[in-house]
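Support reply, case 0932

Customer input (verbatim):
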Amino acid sequence: MICLAGAIGALAAFEYSLYALFQIGTCASGASAYVIARQCPPGTAQTMLALPVALVAALAAGAGAGAMLGPRAGGFIWSALFVTTGMQFFAAAPGLGSVAFVFFGLSAMFVIMGIAPFFMSTARFETSD
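Our regenerated output:
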């Protein structure tokens, strides 16, 4: 149960980092030969680092939950990761103007990648019991 709670917590950290980066948008920092149009706000580097760290932690804890609680727990974490990431892309799309269709497409892709395996694994386990 602790692994499942850890996986959900790490997923929340991943999704919050993704949300924060979508809110920041495009930016740059440092000394460059090019003119930087928009400086990155403080803490952007930490937010960018939190994204892969939280993802690895969520997948590791999800694998642990799957090993301890069964494959349905691992399937739940997989589905939660992809569905919530799809919802992040969907929420960010309206403010993007002409490229919003790309985010809507990514949203649909992530939601399908999350929902389809969840229902397929649930049906497989129900028939094998």
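We compared this against your earlier run and they match. Two observations from our side: DSSP finds four helices and no strands in the chain. Residues 2-128 form one domain. Please reopen the case if you see a mismatch on your end.
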